[in-house]
Amino acid sequence: xxxxxxxxxxxxxxxxxxxEFRDRNILDEANIQQICEEISEVVESAPNPKxxxxxxxxxxxxxxxxxxxxxxxxxxxxSEGQLRLANIDPQIYEVFKITRLHGLFKIFDSTDEAMxxxx
Amino acid sequence: MSGQxxxxxxxxxxxxxxxxxxxxxxxxxxxxVLASLERxxxxxxxxxxxxxxxxxxxSNAFRHGHASLDADLPIDVEWSVDADRIVMVxxxxxxxxxxxxxxxxxxEENLEKPAGRGVLLIRSFMSEVxxxxxxxxxxxxxxxxxxTPHA
Lengths: 119, 151
Description:
Chain A is an alpha/beta fold. Chain A has helices at about 30-45, 65-80, 90-100, 110-115; strands spanning about 10-15, 15-20, 25, 50-55, 60, 80-85, 105-110.
């Protein structure tokens, strides 16, 4: 994937695609839409996608960003893939707890723990 | 917008501005409000709460409040910070809405729906939340010492 103008960094580790954010704040709706499109492209390019999204370095995210994560999660489920989230700041994790999305997603403290969890 | 003040103006601890649906303007507002919070010694958890509520309130005003209107219509934002509290009032030009009819996004049947969490987050992080006028004016108050969810 082209990195020109990308909001994300992609790294391949075996069958797993690791995704990191370039921005500290995931707030802008246009950026969030772009993030959704970039990740969707990866998800739709494999039959059973395995994706790890790391939030290392992310300080803020909005409910619109949560919506995009749900959309991606739904796409991965439909493709019988696996999604893991990792390295979430404690304050942002509270946002997941308040919205009860911590139960919807498989969330790990570290990239290593998330990687070890893939079937 | 605060940016209209002369460069020599004192840092603001309150303002009433007309805000366009423009990310650069919204980011400037965030920075101005957060700088005021820092000057008043509000801790990081408080700044996180205020930024989140301000973002969600502005986003809702443009996305939902102005859903049936011209996308270029601005909103009004009034804010003030003092030693005890932060007050933010966001008013859009839309027909207003009744927050009581928003489906509970934490219910099992709504968990996988991608929208509808902004008001829940605002209510969770702010001390007081009121929808005023015809439902097109959101008033949020954060009081110093308010236990933020992670604090």
